[in-house]
Fold this sequence. Notes:
Mean pLDDT: 87
Distance between the termini: 69 Å
Number of strands: 5
Amino acid sequence: MAMKQLDNIQASGTTASHTAKLLSLLLAVLFMVSTFMLIRVPESVRGYIYGVFREIARAQMLLRTHGWQHAEDEYLIIRYQGSKEEAELVRETTRLCYQRICDDYNFTPVRKIPIVIYASREELNASFGWPASENAMGVYWGGVIRVLEPQVWINESDPEAVRHIFQQAGPMAHEMTHLVLDYLAQGNYPRWFTEGLAQYEEYKITGFLFSQPEGIWDRGLYPLDKMDRNFDSLPDQALAYKQSLLAVEYIVSVYGEDGLHRIINNLAQGISFQDSMIQALGTAPKQFESQWHAWLSRELHQPLFIKREDNA
């Protein structure tokens, strides 16, 4: 009888595994179809297709991590393979910034947010097909936040010290902001804008800023129109992130946070970024960039020039 029960359990587990693989294959096909449609469809319906694309990616990730350890509350789904304590710290930290960011952008998630925790940098990078040398602590993509276990990058043994560092310098506020903008604007934003907004919100909540290498402004600025699809391949990542933050800070300084919200509201309606800026700020991106450079030069007390040497 015991052997028969074991056989039944094994058969049930095999069936579930096959079902998960079939669903994953089906979602992969739908993912490719939606990607193709995203390229071909007119801008007026691109946001809708993008939302389908993102939800397929989200479902795929939940299927792929189906057998992992699982924790859940009313807002979050946590998948992990390491320690329960690390997963709880990630959940607790996300909850500290969750409502603040939702309130700041008047956003209400319709589904629980999946957070996948990786026990090593190699595993996180491999989930995107990145080389092991990539140094990200967290990444938002496709409706899912992926992060490293805090102990992988925090060199402390005292749990309270780890908690303090993770809550002050961890990636949760940053990645949560990316997620909120992505859902609001349905993918309709340039990369520099989401990176600047994520750093701006992160600083408001935790006070954290990326380090600024000495002489960073002596290297020349990247043009904003080159800081979109090619953002990750820009040779000077510290400069690209710093420029993104300061472009958003310039918007807030001159137009207030209402200026930011007007841009996001326009993007959410499917309006192009160029037209969103014109309608929200009364200036086109090229004029905005010139005015921002002048403001930045005054703030830094030094002349600035556009970066040319790496064709970025």
